[in-house]
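TL;DR need structure tokens for one chain.
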Amino acid sequence: MPTTDALITCPHCHQAFPLNEAVLQQHRDTIERELREKTETAQRALRDREQALASQTAALEQRQQTLATEVQRQLATERQKLRTAAVTEAREQLAVELRDTQARLGEQTQQLEKARATELTLRQERRALEEQKAALELDVARRLDAERQKLLASAEQKAEEAQRLRLAEKEKVISDMQAQIAVLKQKAEQGSMQLQGDVLEIDLEHRLAALFPADEIVPVATGTRGADIQQLVRTTTAQPCGLVIWETKRTKNWSAAWPAKLKEDQRTAKATLAVLVTQALPEGVRGFTLHEGVWVCDYASALPLAQVLRQWLIALAVARAAESGKQEKTALLYAYLTGAEFRQHIEGVVSAFKTMRDDLEAEKRALQKHWARREKELDRAIGCTASLYGSIQGIAGAGALPDIEPLLLGEAS
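>> reply
TL;DR here they are.
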């Protein structure tokens, strides 16, 4: 049976042509060859693209590794710089403290020489007095020893608390420096004045509460307007005698605006007295003074001044209660308490307690060398207190203020 060739029509002239198997095979070969060429071209392009992508990936990984190495090097350099700066600052601070300690040691050595000369004179006078009062001395000495032991124990405890405060401050500074180094060493530790002020305020509050358990010691909350501490003075029978407000400052320079602000706080709190405890005293002031209507003192004089002012408030309250209606004696008592003689007594008491405090701190290094001098200062403090109480008793009247046996013994010695 004859095969019939397929017909194909030209799309332009619409002429039909027979399409036999040979022509079909030729077209098939041509189409397959073109497909193979296109496939090989696409595969070569794909391989070239994969090679380019691999090269880019390798270059990117190399760049990332180089960048990481540079970052580690820079971090190590900065870390070493911060460590060096911190060590340098710590060494400088220790050098300053060493120079200060050496200077204080020189001053204490000079004071010791003067104390030895004074001690020799006082011992000679005491021997003469012992010859005249041999019969009374034994009983008086026993009672004075008991009182002296109490005062020494209290003074030693205060000295230990002061040392503990300094150690706590140093530990806090070291802790802050380590924390700052751990967070990329941004700055060397500079010290927090607010923290130091809080430490001073808390320590003063605790020491006032320990020294005057009958009084009401109330700290003022941080951020609240007013002084740092309020002390409501009470007698042993819980009778209020007056309110004392305390403000603490621990800065290097004195500010003239402090007294005015404290007086305003005093008026707001309706306080009887206002005391400013500051590390930086006004120019020309040593220890303590009455400055622009408020008492200003350093930290060493704070507790002795608190004892004197508290005694003054109690004496004034007792005098008012005992002499109600007697304006003339009240006026005399007020004139005495605001006069030069009363201030001299205060200075004597504060000076004695401050000297004892300094001696007790030095006693940790040489206790036996300072024992005799400390005993004399304690006798002096008892004598000044007895003289102060006797002066007030002389003005107020013997019936208004009863005798106190330890103070009478202090006068006798």
